[in-house]
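Action item from last week, closing it out:
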Amino acid sequence: MEGGNKMKPVCLVLVLALVGSLTGCAGMTDEQQRLLSGGGLGTAGGVALAAVTGGSVLIGAVVGGAAGVAGGALMNEQEKKKSAKTATGKKTSVAQRQDTKAD
Protein backbone atom coordinates (compact mmCIF):
# COMPACT_ATOMS: atom_id res chain seq x y z
CA MET A 1 0.00 0.00 0.00
CA GLU A 2 2.88 2.35 0.76
CA GLY A 3 4.20 2.30 -2.82
CA GLY A 4 0.75 3.05 -4.27
CA ASN A 5 0.44 6.19 -2.17
CA LYS A 6 3.76 7.51 -3.46
CA MET A 7 2.64 7.10 -7.07
CA LYS A 8 -0.50 9.26 -6.74
CA PRO A 9 1.41 12.56 -6.41
CA VAL A 10 3.79 11.48 -9.16
CA CYS A 11 0.94 10.75 -11.56
CA LEU A 12 -0.77 14.01 -10.65
CA VAL A 13 2.39 16.02 -11.32
CA LEU A 14 2.96 14.25 -14.62
CA VAL A 15 -0.60 14.83 -15.78
CA LEU A 16 -0.50 18.50 -14.74
CA ALA A 17 2.84 19.00 -16.49
CA LEU A 18 1.51 17.40 -19.67
CA VAL A 19 -1.73 19.39 -19.68
CA GLY A 20 0.12 22.61 -18.85
CA SER A 21 2.65 22.10 -21.61
CA LEU A 22 -0.06 21.43 -24.18
CA THR A 23 -2.38 24.30 -23.28
CA GLY A 24 -0.10 26.93 -21.80
CA CYS A 25 1.78 27.98 -24.95
CA ALA A 26 -0.93 29.99 -26.72
CA GLY A 27 0.07 33.61 -27.17
CA MET A 28 3.67 33.08 -26.10
CA THR A 29 6.83 33.96 -27.98
CA ASP A 30 8.96 31.16 -29.39
CA GLU A 31 11.51 31.74 -26.62
CA GLN A 32 8.89 31.47 -23.90
CA GLN A 33 7.49 28.31 -25.48
CA ARG A 34 10.93 26.68 -25.62
CA LEU A 35 11.69 27.52 -21.99
CA LEU A 36 8.28 26.35 -20.76
CA SER A 37 8.40 23.16 -22.80
CA GLY A 38 11.92 22.39 -21.61
CA GLY A 39 10.95 23.05 -18.01
CA GLY A 40 7.81 20.92 -18.25
CA LEU A 41 9.56 18.00 -19.89
CA GLY A 42 12.48 18.25 -17.48
CA THR A 43 10.14 18.32 -14.49
CA ALA A 44 8.23 15.30 -15.74
CA GLY A 45 11.47 13.44 -16.40
CA GLY A 46 12.90 14.34 -13.00
CA VAL A 47 9.72 13.23 -11.22
CA ALA A 48 9.60 9.97 -13.15
CA LEU A 49 13.25 9.24 -12.48
CA ALA A 50 12.88 10.04 -8.78
CA ALA A 51 9.82 7.80 -8.54
CA VAL A 52 11.57 4.90 -10.24
CA THR A 53 14.74 5.20 -8.17
CA GLY A 54 12.95 5.85 -4.88
CA GLY A 55 14.36 9.36 -4.52
CA SER A 56 12.61 12.54 -3.49
CA VAL A 57 9.97 13.47 -6.05
CA LEU A 58 10.25 17.15 -5.10
CA ILE A 59 14.00 17.22 -5.64
CA GLY A 60 13.60 15.30 -8.89
CA ALA A 61 11.03 17.84 -10.08
CA VAL A 62 13.21 20.83 -9.18
CA VAL A 63 16.41 19.43 -10.67
CA GLY A 64 14.65 18.11 -13.76
CA GLY A 65 12.82 21.39 -14.26
CA ALA A 66 16.01 23.41 -13.94
CA ALA A 67 17.81 21.13 -16.40
CA GLY A 68 14.86 21.36 -18.79
CA VAL A 69 14.79 25.17 -18.69
CA ALA A 70 18.55 25.21 -19.31
CA GLY A 71 18.05 22.90 -22.27
CA GLY A 72 15.25 25.10 -23.57
CA ALA A 73 17.50 28.16 -23.27
CA LEU A 74 20.25 26.39 -25.22
CA MET A 75 17.78 25.41 -27.94
CA ASN A 76 16.56 29.00 -28.08
CA GLU A 77 20.10 30.30 -28.59
CA GLN A 78 20.66 27.76 -31.36
CA GLU A 79 17.45 28.83 -33.08
CA LYS A 80 18.43 32.50 -32.81
CA LYS A 81 21.81 31.78 -34.41
CA LYS A 82 20.17 29.72 -37.13
CA SER A 83 17.64 32.48 -37.84
CA ALA A 84 20.38 35.13 -37.90
CA LYS A 85 22.42 33.12 -40.42
CA THR A 86 19.36 32.56 -42.58
CA ALA A 87 18.39 36.24 -42.46
CA THR A 88 21.95 37.31 -43.27
CA GLY A 89 22.06 34.92 -46.20
CA LYS A 90 18.79 36.26 -47.57
CA LYS A 91 19.94 39.86 -47.25
CA THR A 92 23.15 39.06 -49.07
CA SER A 93 21.37 37.30 -51.90
CA VAL A 94 18.92 40.19 -52.31
CA ALA A 95 21.80 42.68 -52.37
CA GLN A 96 23.61 40.54 -54.92
CA ARG A 97 20.50 40.44 -57.11
CA GLN A 98 20.20 44.22 -56.97
CA ASP A 99 23.85 44.61 -57.94
CA THR A 100 23.35 42.22 -60.84
CA LYS A 101 20.30 44.15 -62.08
CA ALA A 102 22.19 47.46 -61.89
CA ASP A 103 24.98 46.11 -64.13
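Closing note: Residues 30-82 form one domain.
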